[in-house]
Every structure is written in structure tokens, then in C-alpha cells.
Design goal:
alpha+beta, 15% helix, single chain, 13-stranded mixed beta sheet, 35% strand, Purple Acid Phosphatase, chain A, domain 2, Immunoglobulin-like
Length: 605
């Protein structure tokens, strides 16, 4: 009996070991709900197992482990206690076995709120199928683009809906989404999705009850764990990444017991949007959802009621709250607008003069009318760029009115949108499925401005161009920053280049005496600085502005030690080199113009 017991135990252990060896990952891993200090890592196994994630800042070394002893096929591990703006590598598996982990398994946490470092995001719309090899080609060209830029991954991956066709089933997600992306970009792009009508199976019942695989597959920061106001609804949410605020919205699902959608401005979702935007303090705001307000691709925004309603009822809320960029899918092509403002009509009603804040192409490539869209930061209706990017996998036809009059930068081809945002500059590129950058545009905030600074005589000031790009200063310097020491009021300027002058910042430097410096003689009204003087003497006298005067240095016994003709500036300021005069000597400054003579005693130090 004892021998049989030992034999049975050995067989059982062997079976358990063989079972463990048979475990494999059938979905993922993929990264969700990232923030400055946390991320969720998910994967699916073919049989139920325990869960473990190893984390480290060096590939191959994973000193931190997060485990869950619950046996499951759907593994969801929340990793906490991370550092902002830090690259981490990870492995996934069971509490006893690493199932997957290599140099491509990594993510970068969100930077600090004050960071201005470059943020990158890959935008995939309608990516859940492979029409005409759009899915395969778009992914490959995106990977090539990353390689050419010396990058292994973007910070973020945004999904614009219709992530799995035709009905958003779990099996369709396995084949049409995870099958395409899990071996490459899902391992190292933190993913923030939004649903489309195909994710809802185009079903009215699912619109209402939201009983769709999408909500089981994705973990989103609906509790505000990635920044923004908590929505407490997985259909829509917001998050922050550096100086960018994102809103992921649901344009197909219904709220309020099936009575409202995104275009119902009194509905639950829109009321949350208003509260979220009111609390937003980020320099950039980007909103994305599935159904576009303007399109003439395989959908028509003139006659499809839900698109008309979004345009007429909803988008003005975003525009007046300073949303910079709106991204949508649904139409299986690429379309991009001017910088639009207060345009809610049909295509025929569009007027470039009336409905654009700027009608440049914004390509910023030196071609005619291609300067960036430039406007001040803030929650104001400065204009918004609208992009339809719905051809990362799906292909479709176009309407008779294509391209839409307000969306002239359009291509009926597959591809993805790539965003780069650094400080106050945003660059977007449509990477077509053949590798061509078919469209690009740039937005720069707070440029083309004039600032005034005041310094004391003899001091210096550092001037800095306030954008990312090229620089040509009026001093001929080409660096982003220069240090100047003007002796009189001076206007400096910096442009973006010597020929492509879309930006021209001006800096007016006023040279003034510090408060409290005044004449000891009183009646002559002469001011000198510094007291005692050292090397350079600065003086100012009433009534001698922008004129030539004689400036004389006289000893107490009346000997003229120095005489110069000096030009005063618009403040009446003049400067005199006294570096050769004897030290610790009391002298007299005499200033003579055609009408007046002023004098002031001073001491050389």
C-alpha cells in the first residue's frame, strides 16, 4: 500500500509538471492604464494558472515581482510603486515559470506633470481586419518608421474603435487584433482604446447594456488613476501624459438607461466631459472617439444622422474648452482639416474665411501657405484640427463630395497617424501603408509674441526662443538661447529660419536704474549708477532723450580728465567707460547738450 501511495504521488507530481510545461500564452501580453507610477499588464493562457510579473530597469534582470495565486486564464496584474519617466522591462508567467519576456517587453511610465519631454503616440483606427493588406502593411511601415527614428516604441497606442470585425467577438479580437499586434507593438506600447460600432456588434441591445467583449478585454483608467476626473464608466475616460490631457469617448454606446449618446449634451457622458475639461490644466488637449463630425470617405457626414448630431450638438463644447486635436475613425481612409472654428454645417456650407481660424496647410515644409497653426495656450476657442484616421486595417470607398471641403488634406489609402508632442510643439504624420508620409501638420503654441524685460545697467539677461525647432537671432546666433548685455534699450528678435520665417519672437530689453538710485544734488536731476562707480558709469539726465551730448569727467580742482560725445537712448540713458580713471577718487560728471548742462559728483572704486 505504501509503495502504491508513493507511486501515485510521483505520478501526480509528474502530471502537474507536464501540465505546467504545457502552459502557453495565447493572448498578449499587453499594457493598460499606465500612469507615472503604475501600469496594468494583461495576458491570456490556454489553461488556468497563477500569475506573476517580473519588473526591472535592465533587460534580463527583474528584481521586483508581483504575483497572484488565483488560478485563471485571464491574467491582470497591476504593478505599483514605479518611478515617473522610467523605462521598465518585464516578464509574465506563473508563480513558478516565466512564460514570456525579452528585450521587446518594456514600457516607459508617464513623465512628471511639469515635464516637457517629447511624447509619442501611434494612432490606429479601424485596425481589426486586413483589407488589401492594410493592416499588415501599415504595421510594417510603422515599425520601419520607428526604426528609422532610432526608436523601439512609442509611449502610447490609441485605438479609434472598430478594433475587431465584424461583431467585436472575443474570437474576432483574437484573430483580427491580437493576432496582428501582440508579437510586436502590444508588448511595448501602453494602450488606451475607444470602442466603435463594430465593437458593439452594430446591435441596439448592446448599445444599451454594453455587454460586449471590449469591456472584458481592456482595462481603462475610469477611476481617474491616470489623471483626469474619474468617469466611473469604462465606456469613456481621461488621462494625462506629461503636458497632454487625453479624452477617450464613446460615440456609439448609450447612457442614461439607453436614452442618450455622445451628441446629447445633457447626457451623463457629456456632463462628465464638461467637468473633466473644466478641471484640465494641461497645455495640450486631445480627444478621440469613433464617429467623425466631418467625412466624405465611405461614410457621409452630411446625411448620416449620428454624424450630423455630433457636429451640430457636441463639438462646440470641445472647441470652446480649448481642445487642440480631435481624432476619429469610422471612415476607412485618412482625412484632415484646416484649423476649424465654429463650423457645424454641411459640406456645401463650408467657407474658408468664416469657418477657419487658420487656412494654412500647416505642413511647415517651406511650401506656400504652410506655416504651422500658431495660437496661445488656454481654454479658449482658438480652433481645432480634426483628423479621420480609419484605415489602419479597413478599406472603403469615398463619397461623391470627397474630399470634404473642410478636410482637403485627404488620402483614400491605408495607414496610421503618428503624433510627437514636445513642450509647446505638436507634429502629426500620416504614415501611409506604402511608407510615404502622405500628410503632416504642425501646431505651435505661444509663439509670435513680444516680451519686455527690464535690467539694470551693466547686467546681462538670457533670452530663449520658446519653441522647438530652428533659430536665427538678430545677433546672428543660431542657438535656442542667447545671453545679452545691452547698454541701452534694445530690441532683439529670433525667427525659425533665415528663409522660412513663420515665427518671429521679439524681446525688448529696457535698461533702467534700480529703484532708489537718484541724484544727491537734487536740482540738476542727474542720476548715476553704480555708486561708487566701477569700470562703467551709467547716467541719466532729464530732457536729453535720443540726442548727442558731451560727457566730461572733471577733477575737484577743475581739470578735465575725459571728454566724450555720447548718444543717449529713448530713456535718456548714457554710458561712459571710466576704467582708466584713478581709483578711490571723487570726481564730477558734467553732461552738456545744446540747451542744458547737468553735473553730478561721483566716486570711482
Amino acid at each position: 500500500m505504501r509503495i502504491f501511495q508513493y507511486t501515485f504521488t510521483a505520478i501526480l507530481l509528474l502530471v502537474l509538471q507536464l501540465t505546467a510545461d504545457a502552459q502557453s500564452i495565447v493572448r498578449g501580453p499587453y499594457l493598460q492604464a499606465g500612469s507615472q507610477t503604475e501600469v496594468t499588464i494583461r495576458w491570456r493562457t490556454d489553461i488556468a494558472t497563477t500569475s506573476k510579473v517580473g519588473i526591472g530597469t535592465t533587460t534580463g534582470t527583474y528584481p521586483t515581482n508581483v504575483t497572484d495565486n488565483t488560478s485563471t486564464t485571464e491574467h491582470i496584474i497591476r504593478v505599483t510603486g514605479l518611478l515617473p519617466n522610467t523605462k521598465y522591462y518585464y516578464t509574465v508567467g506563473t508563480t513558478t515559470t516565466v512564460l514570456q519576456g525579452d528585450a521587446d517587453n518594456f514600457f516607459v511610465t508617464a513623465p512628471a506633470d511639469t515635464s516637457t519631454r517629447k511624447i509619442t503616440a501611434a494612432v490606429f483606427g479601424d485596425c481589426g481586419r486586413n483589407d488589401n493588406n492594410y493592416q499588415t502593411n501599415s504595421l510594417n511601415q510603422y515599425l520601419t518608421h520607428l526604426q528609422n527614428k532610432g526608436m523601439k516604441g512609442a509611449d502610447l497606442m490609441l485605438l479609434l474603435g472598430d478594433n475587431a470585425y465584424q461583431n467585436g467577438t472575443d474570437a474576432e479580437y483574437t484573430s483580427g487584433f491580437f493576432g496582428a499586434y501582440q508579437s510586436t507593438i502590444l508588448k511595448n506600447h501602453i494602450l488606451f482604446p475607444t470602442p466603435g460600432n463594430h465593437d458593439y456588434a452594430n446591435d441596439a441591445g448592446r448599445q444599451d447594456d454594453h455587454a460586449i467583449p471590449y469591456y472584458d478585454i481592456f482595462t481603462v483608467p475610469d477611476a481617474g488613476q491616470s489623471g483626469g476626473v474619474a468617469s466611473n464608466n469604462k465606456a469613456y475616460y481621461s488621462y494625462n501624459w506629461g503636458n497632454i490631457h487625453f479624452l477617450s469617448l464613446d460615440s456609439y454606446g448609450e447612457e442614461d438607461a439607453g436614452t442618450t449618446r455622445l451628441y446629447d449634451t445633457n447626457g451623463k457622458q457629456v456632463q462628465w466631459i464638461k467637468n473633466d475639461l473644466a478641471a484640465n490644466t494641461k497645455k495640450w488637449t486631445i480627444a478621440y472617439w469613433h464617429h467623425p463630425p466631418y467625412t466624405m470617405g465611405n461614410h457621409n457626414s452630411d446625411n448620416e444622422s449620428e454624424l450630423v448630431a455630433i457636429r451640430q450638438n457636441f463639438i462646440q463644447i470641445l472647441e470652446r474648452n480649448g481642445v487642440d486635436l480631435i481624432l476619429c475613425g469610422h471612415s476607412h481612409n485618412y482625412e484632415r482639416s484646416y484649423l476649424l472654428k465654429s463650423y457645424t454645417g454641411n459640406e456645401a456650407a463650408f467657407n474658408t474665411t468664416t469657418h477657419t481660424a487658420d487656412s494654412s496647410s500647416a505642413k511647415y515644409d517651406g511650401s506656400a501657405n504652410s506655416c504651422p497653426y500658431i495660437y496661445p495656450s488656454g481654454k479658449k476657442a482658438h480652433g481645432t484640427v480634426y483628423v479621420v484616421s480609419g484605415s489602419a486595417g479597413a478599406s472603403g470607398g469615398v463619397q461623391a463630395g470627397y474630399p470634404h471641403n473642410a478636410m482637403p488634406f485627404s488620402y483614400n489609402d491605408g495607414g496610421i497617424l503618428f503624433l510627437e508632442i514636445e513642450d509647446n510643439r505638436l507634429d502629426a504624420k500620416f504614415i501611409r501603408q506604402d511608407g510615404v508620409i502622405a500628410d503632416k501638420f504642425t501646431i505651435i503654441k505661444d509663439a509670435n509674441r513680444r516680451d519686455t524685460f527690464t535690467i539694470t545697467p551693466g547686467s546681462s539677461i538670457e533670452l530663449s526662443a520658446n519653441w522647438v525647432g530652428g533659430y536665427v537671432w538678430s545677433t546672428s546666433a543660431t542657438s535656442k538661447k542667447i545671453t545679452v548685455s545691452p547698454t541701452a534699450n534694445t530690441l532683439y528678435s529670433v525667427k525659425d529660419s533665415s528663409t522660412n520665417t513663420c515665427i518671429n519672437n521679439e524681446y525688448y530689453i529696457k535698461v533702467q536704474f534700480p529703484a532708489g538710485v537718484q541724484s544727491t544734488t537734487g536740482k540738476d536731476g542727474v542720476i548715476v549708477y553704480p555708486v561708487p562707480a566701477n569700470g562703467m558709469l551709467y547716467a541719466k539726465a532729464t530732457g536729453i532723450i535720443n540726442t548727442n551730448v558731451k560727457a566730461e569727467i572733471i577733477s575737484l580742482n577743475g581739470q578735465i580728465l575725459q571728454s566724450d560725445v555720447v548718444n543717449t537712448d529713448s530713456e535718456g540713458l548714457l554710458h561712459i567707460d571710466i576704467s582708466h580713471l584713478p581709483k578711490v577718487t571723487q570726481l564730477i560728471l558734467r553732461i552738456s547738450s545744446e540747451a542744458n548742462t547737468y553735473s553730478m559728483p561721483f566716486t570711482v572704486q
